[in-house]
Design goal:
This protein is mainly α. It has a domain at 14-93. It is 54% helix and 9% strand. It has helices spanning 18-47, 66-75, 90-93, 97-118; strands at 53-55, 78-81, 84-87. The protein has a three-stranded antiparallel β-sheet with strand order 1-3-2. Helix 1 packs across helix 2. The longest helix is centred in the first third of the chain and has 30 residues, at 18-47. The two termini are 33 Å apart.
């Protein structure tokens, strides 16, 4: 498996996102904990190239519990998946493994072309 990303994209308005606001307003500290699990899940997915998939066995490693996972599904931040959950709209906000591989190939091709031009190996 290719190395994951050392960073993720988090919307600067995450705190005002209606789904996150609903978690905090309707569920208090549990809702805030669920919002933290949501952020951790995005990091987990990027680090492990899962394209938004979260296996049930990984829940403790992102500080989650089944109850917090249900809250995330209830507000629409996660979706139920075959082996656990999926971050809703992950590919709309984070680079997928396919897009990262394509970008790496483009960089490699550009570097090869530049090296060939530099050394006269057209």
């Amino acid at each position: 498996m290719a190395a994951g990303l050392p960073w993720v994209r988090i919307d600067s308005d995450l705190a005002q996102n209606p789904k996150v606001a609903d978690l905090a307003a309707e569920h208090g500290q549990r809702g805030l904990a669920a919002a933290f699990v949501f952020v951790c899940s995005i990091g987990h997915c990027a680090a492990h190239n899962t394209d938004g998939e979260i296996r049930k066995a990984m829940l403790p490693f992102i500080h989650g519990t089944p109850a917090l996972a249900r809250l995330l599904v209830d507000v629409g931040l996660w979706e139920v998946a075959e082996k656990g959950w999926r971050v809703a709209k992950y590919a709309e906000h984070q680079p997928t493994a396919e897009s990262r591989e394509a970008a790496a190939q483009r960089r490699s091709d550009a570097a090869r072309t530049a090296a060939n031009a530099r050394w006269g190996n057209a």
